[in-house]
Design brief:
Elements lengths: L5 H25 L9 H35 L29 H10 L5 E6 L5 E6 L5 E5 L6 E3 L5 H12 L5
Antiparallel strand pairs: 1-2, 2-3, 3-4
Helix pairs in contact: 1-2
């Protein structure tokens, strides 16, 4: 049996009560003037507003029920190992992709990142969204990640395997 969220149940009941109560209130408001008959000018706005409000409550209850269902699927049997963690050390290595090139905007942003140094080469690595930057007068290379809003330098301390793989790849490139 699937575990249901009590908040979702309560919100759904409140939504139906608002809709049914609004219907009866709209009928009573519309029939206040017996000599005129049913006054739709008062009844329809009350009926419409109660319907919309009730549907909002029912919609929120459905969202909560769906979130509960997702939660139960992720954490089924009390096993939390199926959920990926947000730790940097557990982060998967990017997949190799042979052919990709940084856009002109990416190149411009990388040069802004190294504004105080002369960039001699920007090369797309075989890992998507990672570039190699060679600085004039320096023996080592810098690895830059382009996957975020702005390019950022990747250090050996944060992603040692990735940086080492990219350095090996770059050292094996034929000179241009």
């Amino acid at each position: 049996m699937e575990k249901q969220n009590t908040v979702a149940k309560v919100l759904r009941v409140i939504g139906f009560v608002i809709m049914i109560g609004g219907f009866f209130i709209a009928l009573s408001l519309g029939s206040r003037a017996p000599e005129v008959g049913q006054n739709w000018g008062i009844a329809l706005p009350a009926l419409f507003s109660s319907f919309v409000t009730g549907m909002l409550f029912i919609g929120f209850s459905e969202v909560i029920a769906l979130l509960q269902k997702i939660h139960l699927q992720l954490y089924q049997d009390g096993n939390k190992d199926t959920v990926s963690s947000n730790n940097e050390s557990d982060e998967e290595q990017p997949q190799e992709k042979k052919e990709w090139h940084p856009t002109p905007q990416d190149v411009e942003e990388i040069q802004e990142l190294f504004h105080d140094q002369k960039v001699t080469k920007i090369e797309a690595s075989p890992y998507e969204d990672y570039c190699v930057v060679q600085i004039d007068g320096e023996d080592h290379i810098e690895v830059v990640e382009l996957g975020g809003f702005k390019p950022k330098k990747v250090s050996t301390a944060s992603k040692p395997d990735l940086v080492n793989n990219i350095q090996k790849w770059f050292n094996n490139l034929p000179p241009s």
